[in-house]
Design brief:
Blueprint (H helix, E strand, L loop, with lengths): L1 H8 L5 H9 L3 E4 L3 H5 L7 E2 L19 E5 L3 H12 L5 E6 H7 L3
Parallel strand pairs: 1-2, 1-3, 3-4
InterPro entries: Rhodanese-like_dom, Rhodanese-like_dom_sf, Thiosulfate_ST/Rhodanese-like, Thiosulphate_STrfase_CS
GO molecular function, one term: thiosulfate-cyanide sulfurtransferase activity
Pfam families: Rhodanese
Length: 107
């Protein structure tokens, strides 16, 4: 519950909306540490830790494509969105926490 509250305070999007974007082809970036990523992540997600986000965007070239970022609570994902938007990525979306996204994952 605490993570869900943090996600809401961080400005994350509704999990169902994020999954619709993912199903439509949005890139998914996990901005947590490699250790956190290795403990579990969304299928198809790429791991670019927040500290490496500015220099690690070689895997994302289309600045108009939707990108869903997530982390442990949504705060790092929001910081990641701010970094991407400052670099001209207009469709960066804060997906909130991994836990919240997993709860909304379509079957």
């Amino acid at each position: 519950m605490f993570q869900s509250l943090l996600a809401k305070l961080s400005g994350s999007q509704d999990g169902h909306t994020c999954w619709q974007l993912i199903e439509q082809g949005a890139k998914v970036i996990d901005v947590r540490s490699p250790e956190e990523f290795n403990s579990g992540h969304l299928p198809g997600a790429i791991n670019i830790p927040l500290a490496n986000l500015e220099s690690g965007l070689t895997q994302v070239t289309d600045k108009q494509a939707s990108i869903v970022l997530y982390c442990g609570a949504g705060i790092r994902a929001q910081k990641g969105c701010d970094i991407l938007k400052a670099q001209g990525f207009n469709c960066a979306i804060n997906g909130g926490s991994l836990k919240d996204l997993l709860c909304c994952q379509p079957i």
